[in-house]
Amino acid sequence: MKRRDFLKAGTAGSAFALSGLTTLVPRLAMAATVNVNLVAEGAYKTMADGVSLFTWQFRDTGGTGPGALTSGLVVQEGDSVNVTVTNNVDRSIRFSMDGVSMSTTSSVSPGSSRTYSFTAPAAGTYMYTDNRNGEIGRAMGLAGPMVVMPADGSSRLYNGGPNFDRQYTLVMSDFDDRLNSAVENGQSYNMANYEPNYYFANGLAYPDTASDSDTLITMGVGEDVAIRFVNAGAITYPMHFHGYHVNVATRNRSPETAVISKDTVQVERDECVDIILPVAQSGIFPLHTHYVPGVTANGNYPNGGLILMSAA
Ligand SMILES: [Cu+2]
Fold it and tell me: What's the pLDDT tens digit per position in 278-295?
């Protein structure tokens, strides 16, 4: 198994999530070299209401991200990571990740490539994006998650942090179709006017979220399930749980000092929030953004950032 492939559902491989296997397989601590090729490119995507939008994406030529995302990374602390970005969009971009120092902070011009190297930092959840074009890169889709697992092979959200039985990564994002058409037509767009009308978890909108193993949160009663929320959109995501209370473990890799059991977890723009969900009962419950338009597709309900959790 390539290490980058196990960002897919579950912890110990793609067979994990639905098999009922609850024992994690510890991985040996040995720093590896991880080479990744990302192509930043335009792509037309069909929305739930049939509308085709011009979007941008980072496409990982050697793998895929969770759900319908075209990129995502899972590495281990200390790994040497080399990300080569080929830029096929119409303007310069700069690959960046909060909390990670890169070998270069230079941009990539259209039509060229650049390699960004770094040593995988402390265990936790990170987001990479373009930080050259204000919020436009992210709002057009140039973003992806990076999960760093502890070097000791344990299943903890951070060193000394809470253990988990299984984990999910949920990248929340949105599109404002006026921005998409402005970029498609070479026009400018004032992000102060940004108001999205399409919403996603891992690039999927409900009901597709309920049939993908990376967004159908499958759990066992008595387990502690980690959910890594990554806000790759341009609005706030107040993630609301039915049926369960959860504990925030970290916000942007900083451990939460006063943990209060919550049924709604605010995930701000650019923020990664890791939570632990103690599975206290069986059943099927929704998990959704509490921003009401966020569970629609251009006003059609139910759609958007609506996720189902299923516990047995
Ligand atoms: Cu609700």
Answer: 999 999 999 999 999 999
